[in-house]
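Handoff note, outgoing to incoming analyst
You'll be picking up this chain. Sequence as last confirmed:
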Amino acid sequence: MNISKKSLQTIIQEEVQKMLNERYPGGAAGVGYDKGKPDLPQKTDTGSKPVAEVPFALNSKIITQVQKLLIKLGHQKELGAESVDGKFGPYTRRAVKEFQLIAGIKDTGEINPQTIASLKKVVKNSAAAYIRTRAAKVPKYVKKSAAGPARGRKKLRLRKPGGKQGTVSAIAPADPAEVTAEELRQCLTDLNLKHKGEKRSIAMSQGRAAMMAPHVSEALKLAGATTLVRKAMMIAQLAVETGGFKYLIEPSSKAKRYEGWCKKPKYNLGNCKRGDGVRFRGRGFIQLTGRTNYTKAGKDLGIDLVNNPHLAAKPAYAAKIAAWYWKWKNLNSHSDREDVREVTRLIQGGRGLLSWRKSVFYNAVRVFSS
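Most recent structure output, in case you need it:
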């Protein structure tokens, strides 16, 4: 999906206006800030006095929500040390102002209903497109001392982008499907992943990234995942499936649950023989599982996976199997729509670790766009 900056701004403005019109029937145009005080839309009734709407009150809960949305759009660097602290400091203001500029709304740097509505809309429908637009032409902020009332404190000033702008095509490798070891490692770093309330990490060491990068590049090439969004989607899915390309074979203790899954309506794995659950457990980048899938993959790829299931865990074969599965399930079409949920369902059968997959996907988009 290729959305220009102009069309992205138009979409955001139209959707935000609809949301504001629904919330403020008396006139959404009056919602905003004037020297720190919100304008109050008025509801009028024939023969009665105007009744003021409840004013927009900025609090720590709203600020925290905005900070989380900004992080999903790749503004971690602008937020700096503030990150998600529920405080509206200079770094949060800077990130908000940059978002407003790119989204095409009034760049006051203040948090208001229009900005919040825009953030939610972009995160929900066009986050990857926003990240690409931002990477192609991103405003830069510089610090400048302010005299007078600020008493020497440094003030953040927006500098209009000028000079030669970096683009994705200018720094991309010759082969669009190629991913370097450093890019692969960066896709899995600086992620705030949690599972059952505990922080987790799927970061890669430099050695493992160097070992896996050629095989991941091969999988991308064979699967036709050559666009930025497709690459980011495939890497996100494979990385979460394997815990950062670390676990290419499922533990036997977990694989025992697949025993006897012969002709189940939802999960027809074909494990009709005793011992098939462990024998045909999840292996490789895509975690190929079940006698049925091993048989089909082996037949299509010309590999005897039924008699040699261990081959699926070797990186060279894992790349071919992942690409085969990706094309079989037509996952490129879902990737083009940035539908992380549907891609996850077709791979995992449900929504397992969906938040992780989204985090890695958006982070990978940012890495390949920078």
